[in-house]
Design brief:
Blueprint (H helix, E strand, L loop, with lengths): L1 H12 L5 H18 L6 H15 L3 E9 L5 E2 L3 E3 L3 H5 L3 E2 L3 H11 L7 E2 L7 H10 L3 E8 L6 E8 L4 H5 L1 H29 L7 E2 L3 H5 L12 E8 L2 H8 L1 H17 L6 E6 L2 E7 L3 H16 L3 E2 L5 E2 L3 E7 L6 H17 L5 E3 L5
Length: 362
């Protein structure tokens, strides 16, 4: 802290740029930021906090922004933006169709090293002229970010108010910062893969019941202003008979087929989970009980008319029974599930291959 204060005071008293003091301030900022990484869990929060620490450590780094996305993207729009010149980045769009724009950004995105460059009021590229004239920017660098876990890619762009700033301070410091951000991307991607594995049913590829808190949070109702929603509990009829007559491999194939049919019948934003055994749960957003009944019948009919090809070469037809429950205001989700389950067993008792609706809690 004393080092930063002394440096700011010296900078205020002199127009001369002291590269050695600048390097010390940047290095201190990066080390302190690295020590705080374990305190943060969200990858975007980590990157934003490190960028904030860098722009606070020195008055010369006027702007830092990052972007993440597919390498074939047609356009780059900054996502995390930090620094006194943030207004410049908030208006920035870099498009592949304009050669003057794509140079540093897209060459960097392709993994090619791009040397730092100076920015002039006489630049042919309008945004560079604005950066120099309005925000005092004199030099910039773009650095690639890449996950080692998947194909995620990104870009770190830094802008300073001193010509040749990044050469004078040492590009290695900023490349180390990009390496740090790449590691953050990798850890985040690895965490996402582990979460996906934890939430995914290995047999059907559907979500499993461990994902219930995630998929139900958006449909819970706490007031009359919240949109209606509904839950379907769906069970394959006489599934034990399939396993007994045809073997467990055939039973597994039937589960996969019906899971695919249920998923195909859903709208975007709805979710189907394998609840356990031969039972599935469907969460329907913005759906009242009557509409949920129609969805349940549509699924039931799709399953009943489909011939399932089994691994032993034979085929069979199957049916499902369903229970429908609309979410009540303030109702815990497990209560909704219990009501839908009760309606499901009512459908079983009435002869299977049918849909029943649960009564409300009132």
């Amino acid at each position: 802290m004393k080092l930063r204060l002394a440096f700011r005071q010296r900078s205020a008293e002199s127009n001369e740029f002291d590269a050695s003091h600048e390097k010390a301030c940047v290095a201190e900022s990066l080390v302190r930021s690295a020590s705080r990484l374990l305190e943060q869990r969200n990858d975007r929060d980590i990157i934003q906090r490190v960028c904030e620490a860098l722009t606070l450590a020195t008055p010369h780094v006027r702007l830092a922004w990052t972007w993440f996305g597919p390498v074939e993207t047609p356009r780059i729009v900054p996502q995390i933006v930090v620094g006194p010149a943030s207004a410049y980045a908030h208006k920035l769009e870099i498009d592949r169709s304009f050669l003057t724009e794509i140079g540093p950004a897209f060459r960097t995105l392709a993994g090619k090293r791009v040397e730092p460059f100076n920015v002039s009021r006489m630049s042919l590229y309008g945004p560079w002229r604005e950066a120099a004239a309005v925000h005092g920017i004199r030099s910039a660098v773009s650095l690639p970010l890449a996950s080692t876990v998947n194909a995620d890619r990104g870009l770190l762009a830094l802008y300073a108010d001193v010509p040749d700033y990044f050469h004078q301070v040492g590009i290695g410091l900023f490349e180390a910062l990009a390496d740090m951000f790449s590691s953050v991307l990798s850890v985040a991607a690895e965490r996402a893969q582990l979460q996906e594995a934890a939430y995914s049913d290995a047999l059907t590829g559907l979500l499993n019941r461990h994902a219930v808190d995630v998929v139900t949070r958006p449909i819970l109702r706490s007031s009359p202003l919240d949109p209606q929603a509904a839950v379907l509990m769906i069970d394959i009829d006489h599934f034990k008979r399939v396993n007994d007559d045809h073997g467990h491999a055939c039973g597994d194939q039937l589960l996969r087929d019906i899971a695919a049919l249920l998923r195909r019948e859903l709208r975007k934003g709805d979710n189907v989970l394998r609840w356990g055994g031969e039972e599935f749960m469907v969460c329907l957003a913005a759906t009242d009980a009557a509409s949920a009944m129609l969805v349940a019948h549509k699924m039931r009919e799709a399953v009943a008319r489909h011939r399932h090809l089994l691994p032993d070469g034979r085929s069979l037809t199957a049916t499902v029974s369903s229970g429908v429950a609309a979410l009540e205001i303030g109702e815990p989700f497990f209560v909704t599930v219990e009501r839908a389950d009760g309606a499901l067993y009512q459908a079983k008792r009435q002869g299977r291959n049918r849909v029943c609706v649960a009564s409300g809690t009132d």
